[in-house]
Amino acid sequence: MIRAQELTKYFKVHRRQPGFANAMKSLVHRKYDTVKAVDGVSFTIERGERVGFLGPNGAGKTTTLKVLSGLLHPTSGSVEVAGHVPFKREPQLLGKITLVMGQKSQLIWDLPPAETYAMNRAVFDVDQADFDKRLGELTELLELGDLVDKPARQLSLGERMKCELAAALLHGPTTLFLDEPTIGLDVAMQVAIRDFVRSYNQRHEATVLLTSHYMDDVVALCPRIIVIDQGKLIHDGDLRALIKTMDPDKRVSFTLVESISDDELAKLGTLLSKEAQRITLKVADREIGTVVGHLLGTLKAADLAIEDPPLEDVLRQMFGRAKAPPP
Amino acid sequence: MRSAFSRTLRAMPTLLRVGVAETVAYRAEFLVWMLTSTMPLIMLALWTSVAAEAPFQDFTSADFVAYYLAVLIVRNLTGNWVAWQIAEEVRMGILSMRLLRPIHPFIAYAVLHISAVPFRSMIALPLCVILLLSSGASALTTEPLQIALLLPSILLAWLITFGIMFALGGTAFWITQNFGIVNFYFGLWSLLSGYLLPLALLPQALRTIAKWLPFHAMLGAPVELMMRHLSSAQVAELIGRQVAWAVASILIGLAVWRAGVRRFEAVGG
After folding, report:
1. Where are the beta strands (DSSP E) in chain A?
2. Which residue ranges of chain B lie beneath pLDDT 50?
3. What are the boundaries of each domain within chain A?
4. pLDDT at position B249, please?
5. What whole-number distance in Å separates Cα of residue B37 and Cα of residue B188?
6. What are the 10-residue block averages of pLDDT along chain A, 327 residues in total?
7. Which residues of B touch A105 (CB under 8 A)?
8. Per CATH, which fold does A2-243 belong to?
């Protein structure tokens, strides 16, 4: 279980204006600003949950993950992960958690991943038989093949990420902190990593806390999302419920054989796009039945689809709203 | 969960093996490092020419040859670059990954640097030993006690050097670009450890200062043990100082780390 109570993390940041004179001035007198990266965030995550952590750049997502994994000491508030205080970094806790950062490598750069795996086995004190079994499982799930024998620096981004995931999971952690694990990967690889995380979660009843810029990752993996903006928690709950609250209207897409005027369409809902004969309307939830009936019956619409609004749109709306109005 | 100590012990062979593999992987850096630790050879050439005609303050030409070859041997066995490594890892945020492993970074870095020693001294060490035995043999000790204590003394010198370098590396938690501090330290170390010239050639005031600082215990102590005929009391004092500094430098290193790691900002996503 993960619990954060009124968690705050502030950083002191040195500020200086550009230019030589300002550089000299900052030698003598330094100006510091306090950045509230995380500002009074509380949540509880039960074992086995998959939770998406969303927010714009600089919202405090990664900082929260770093506090939860014990890399950062919180400024105030309390944090507990699997019964431990993370920043104490007790070996018992480190054996239960893992942190994967899409932009940081734990693989030894000039050696094949197999060497990092051997080192992790030794420092995490994993039994050789367990290690072989887990490596076999990870090799199969992630299709590692002979990648583990190539120097890490010669692997492609996608190959390296797969090897990183294996390195992060060889000690059998039950809490996974994944920070942008699919960044820079192509769609096929993103799907592969996503499937893998889901299957690991189900096999090991592992708790997963994921941040990602790719909304598809979050939609596909996380039934629950926590939204954080400017260090503050602004939503915690079911993904669908969030979408429903923020934007209850549905997106209705269809194809028409005969042309129709925009005025006619406006009577059915808000026109979002009209490309060739493919039309997308925004329709209020309570009018869906009437509109769909009219589209299928009178207008003979084909390929009709009713969808929730894309998460990106909902979030854009949300972050726009969450920002404090200018004084 | 088994105890941290026994777990660390069991991890040791694998850590050493991986450390060796890592050292060997950086072939070019390795070669440069082996070729650049030549300052003692320059000093050797300088002082042997000074002492060519007549001994300089009791140091004959052969004494200088033996002294600087011994310096080169000890330096090869005890030098490490952990201060730079820590600074780089803190600055780039790479340290994050190290902190997530259940082994104290002091041990993890130490093992890596120990495993590099045999390779780094692969060329210089045999060469120096052969030269020392052939041309400086007359200046070497024949005392069994000194010979027996040589290896422990080198080990202690390694520990002190590592502890201090670890502490210096830890200053990167406060001053991200700590190269200035490390360079200043190297200036002091070169002068007061006996690296540039034997402490006996320094002015009395500097010698007194050197006596109370750790630098001599890091290099001069094992070198003197190798060379001069020392009394048992002097040997005991040398080793005693080394033991005290080894304990102190490990404690200082760990304390700096403990205080500093709280400030670690784990930069970069």
Report:
1. 2-15, 31-45, 50-54, 76-81, 97-101, 175-179, 207-211, 224-229, 232-238, 250-255, 270-275, 278-283, 302-307
2. 1, 269
3. 2-243, 249-308
4. 97
5. 17
6. 93 77 74 87 95 87 92 93 93 93 86 94 93 91 89 89 92 94 83 89 94 84 91 88 82 86 87 86 89 88 86 76 46
7. 97
8. Rossmann fold (3.40.50)
Q: Which residue of B has its CA nearest to A164?
A: B97
Give yes or no for a contact between A72 and B266, defined as CB atoms under 8 angstroms apart.
yes
DSSP string of B81-142? -HHHHHHHHHHHTTHHHHHTSSS-HHHHHHHHHHHHHHHHTTTHHHHHHHHHHHHSGGGS--
Q: How far is the C-alpha of B138 from the C-alpha of B222, rounded, in Å?
A: 17
Residues of A within 8 A of B2 (CB-CB) are 125
Identify how many contiguous H helices and E strands chain A contains and give both numbers.
12, 13
Alpha-carbon distance of A96 to A23, in angstroms, equals 46
How far is B24 from B20, CA to CA, in rounded Å? 6
The pair of structure tokens assigned to A84 is 């431990």
**Residues forming a β-bridge with A281:** A252, A271
Q: Which is nearest to A261 in space by CA: A274, A246, A242?
A: A274
Distance from CA of B208 to the nearest CA of A (A): 36
Nearest to B14 among A118, A179, A180 (CB): A118
* pLDDT tens string B179-204: 888 889 999 999 999 998 899 899 99
A36: which 2 tokens?
């509230």
> Least CA distance to A13: which residue of chain B?
B265
- CA B182/CA A309 separation, integer angstroms: 57
Q: Is A73 left (phi over 0), alpha (psi -120 to 50) or beta?
A: beta
Give the type of residue at A114: A
For the domain spanning A249-308, the CATH number is 3.30.70
**β-strand partners of A179:** A101, A211
Record the tokens describing residue A4, joined without a space. 């954060």
CA atoms of A229 and A246, how far apart (whole Å): 16
Q: Where are the domains of chain B?
A: 4-261
Whether the Cβ atoms of residue A38 and residue A231 lie closer than 8 Å to each other: yes
Q: What is the DSSP string of B32-68?
A: HHHHHTTHHHHHHHHHHHHTSSS-BTTB-HHHHHHHH
- Residue A205 and residue A172 in contact, taking contact as beta carbons nearer than 8 Å: no
* Size (chain A), residues: 327
